[in-house]
Design brief:
This is DUF1501 domain-containing protein. This protein has about 475 residues and is an alpha/beta fold. It has 13 helices and 16 strands. The strands form 5 sheets. It has an 8-stranded mixed sheet with strand order 6-5-7-1-8-11-4-12, with helices on both faces. The protein has a two-stranded antiparallel sheet with strand order 2-3. The longest helix has 24 residues.
């Protein structure tokens, strides 16, 4: 079924083959008028947005489901790990004992314990997680290219753009990469005007500021309405754009930049100094913690899709920074970065963010998605760690029309493969679009001008309240 750019659809023309098939179905009581009425019902299905915004908390590096939200305490030694499960606020849901505060907010969330795909490399799996489309191959060298699909944020900006000076989408506090820039973070074939607004600064830094949203001394807003002056300013201040004269969407990019430069509301949304010190401390004085606080402020300002990246890199042998990759430690400690860094920061920021959103009445209309690009191997390796494992992992959803205190799907006894209701990133993408009121089978045109759907997945209707 072909769909127009904003998600409505029109009936596909009836071919001779379809008409003959319909005639044959009349023997089963499906007459032509009934078929046409059924087709019309599908065509005119009204999309109702359950969520006004999405906050996508991307856990780069791949958190272990067995150390967080799908523990296997009865599994054999070498699989179950060293953490203990504890009861949560939701009946029947247990989480790691390293997440005691998070355990108290599990009655607000849905866990999908049957996420799976086959991409074992960070860049290919990351692209899949950030776009909802499987890459052409599982290749660590996968590069950003107009042939690949755009970021969720860019699709939302294309199909359901915000109005006024507030950007539809924002991404911070850094982009993610593993050797090279991970695809799925930009607008790709949709054109540069649909790129999210990137804020590549640490919001926890004492001198955090956004010069992109400030006019240079001596230059008035009126002067900037001249296109050449605007181009000079954007080029010098943002340095985020492709400077090629052939870059798609360049005019729209400039127009958005000009609108944002004139927005007091947007500057105020990014001004964390307006928050009480007690709130800032509660979120955690980390780049991730303050980014989640900034995400709340941007949702309040009207931004529709906010991406917060947990870390710029997958992780390494540091215990004070980095993503969720845990197999770089060649010692006998059990995932030292998890205990020293990942778990404490997660247990401070995630429950604070969800509670704050709920207390302000924002959670019901904001879908929060916490997920990485894959999980970790059930079997602990010789370096007392876990390796990449896309065959089964967990995603956490909250607000925006999803159920509370609910588990969808299940892994097998060792957390190796989905045992019930398997879910792919495509399905998670379809569900996000659906909750935003965007038909997940809406077609856009790719770099070769071919119509392609924004998602090949299916809406996970069991998680919707």
């Amino acid at each position: 079924m072909a769909l127009d750019p904003v998600g409505s659809c029109s009936p596909a023309p009836w071919s001779r083959r379809r008409l003959l098939s319909a005639g044959g179905l009349g023997m089963l009581g499906l007459t032509m008028p009934r078929i046409l009425r059924a087709s019309e019902a599908v065509v005119t299905e009204k999309m109702i947005a359950r969520a006004k915004s999405v906050v996508f908390l991307f856990q780069w590096g791949g958190p272990s489901h067995l150390e967080t939200f799908d523990m296997k305490p009865d599994a054999p030694e070498g699989i179950r790990g060293f953490h203990k499960p504890i009861k949560s606020s939701a009946d029947g849901i247990y989480v790691s004992d390293r997440l005691p505060k998070t355990a108290k907010i599990m009655d607000k969330v849905t866990l999908i314990r049957s996420m799976h795909h086959t991409m074992k490399n960070h860049n290919s799996a990351g692209y899949y997680a950030l776009s909802g489309h499987a890459p052409p191959s599982d290749d660590q060298r996968l590069k950003d290219s107009p042939d690949l699909f755009p970021a969720y944020a860019s699709v939302v900006d294309r199909l359901a753009p915000g109005r006024g000076e507030i950007p539809t989408a924002a991404s911070f506090p850094w982009t993610v990469s593993d050797g090279s820039f991970t695809p799925g973070q930009r607008a790709s074939f949709l054109g540069k005007q649909h790129d999210p607004f990137f804020v590549l600064r640490d919001p926890s830094a004492p001198d955090f500021a956004l010069p992109e949203l400030s006019l240079p001394s001596g230059i008035s807003y009126e002067r900037l309405t001249a296109r050449r002056e605007l181009q000079k300013l954007v080029d010098s201040q943002t340095r985020l754009m492709d400077h090629s004269a052939e870059a798609q969407g360049i005019e729209g990019y400039y127009e958005k930049a000009l609108s944002m430069l004139h927005s007091e509301k947007l500057r105020a949304a990014f001004d964390l100094s307006q928050e009480p010190e007690k709130i800032r401390d509660a979120y955690g004085r980390t780049a991730y913690g303050q980014s989640c606080l900034m995400a709340r402020r941007l949702v309040e300002a009207g931004v529709k899709f906010v991406t917060v990246n947990f870390a710029p890199g997958i992780g390494g042998q540091s215990t004070t920074s980095g993503g969720w990759d845990t197999h770089g430690f060649n010692d006998t400690r059990m995932f030292p970065i998890i205990d020293a860094y990942h778990m404490p920061m997660t247990d401070q920021t995630l429950p604070t963010f969800l509670n704050d959103m709920d207390d302000r009445g924002l959670l019901d209309e904001t879908l929060v998605v916490w997920v990485g690009e894959f999980g970790r191997t059930p079997k602990i390796n010789k370096n007392i760690s876990r390796d990449h494992w896309p065959q089964c992992y967990t995603a956490l959803l909250a607000g925006g029309g999803v159920k509370r205190g609910f588990v969808h799907g299940a892994s097998d006894k060792n957390g190796e493969y989905p045992a019930e209701k398997p879910v792919k990133p495509d399905d998670l993408a379809a569900t996000m679009y659906h909750l935003l009121g965007i038909r997940h089978d809406t077609e856009v045109h790719d770099v070769a001008n071919r119509p392609v759907p924004i998602s090949y997945g299916k809406v996970i209707r069991e998680v919707i309240a």
